[in-house]
Fold this sequence. Notes:
The chain is of the alpha/beta class and 225 residues long. 48% of the residues lie in helices and 9% in strands. Strands 1-3-2-4-5 form a 5-stranded mixed β-sheet, covered by helices on one side.
Amino acid sequence: xxxxxxxxxxxxxxxxxxxxxxxxxxxxxxxxxxxxxxxxxxxxxxxxxxxxxxxxxxxxxxxxxxxxxxxxxxxxxxxxxxxxxxxxxxxxxxxxxxxxxxxxxxxxxxxxxxxxxxxxxxxxxxxxxxxxxxxxxxxxxxxxxxxxxxxxxxxxxxxxxxxxxxxxxxxxxxxxxxxxxxxxxxxxxxxxxxxxxxxxxxxxxxxxxxxxxxxxxxxxxxxxx
Length: 225
């Protein structure tokens, strides 16, 4: 729940970019836990993530960054696990050890094996070194490989959501990646029936919908995210 002007300023601050899937994950986590936060927009297209001010918060120059009082954290997985420890309402990991491990495995497939290969910096490099026309095939190839792995991983664990009938960490990481994969990079939903079903389920959850790229304070007026 991002705060607007004129509201009492919350303790939490989230440095975010509307279309960043990593920021999207943290917005979902904050919403699920009912935590108010101040939205601090970082325009990646303008290079604001490379400013001296931002690099003091995260030396590698990536969003998201969460500020909780004197604590400054970057990386969506680290932030999510921190929030889960400090704010225990709506746990992000199940108590069952095996399902907890599957949640962490699914989250890592997204954050380590899919998203880094389709982020802004990589796509820009592909365009410069190989060609503009190779950006989409590159992204589709790597996203498709990850989606195929997730289909196999989750088929024996999924219920209404990724690892059962409750929303957990895997769902928080899957939702932004599915949104990008199906809507931005045009992957064929019919090839990934389980993920396509989960994508539809997430569209019914207010905490997920309020975190959508098109609903953020820095979303351009004409953007469809």
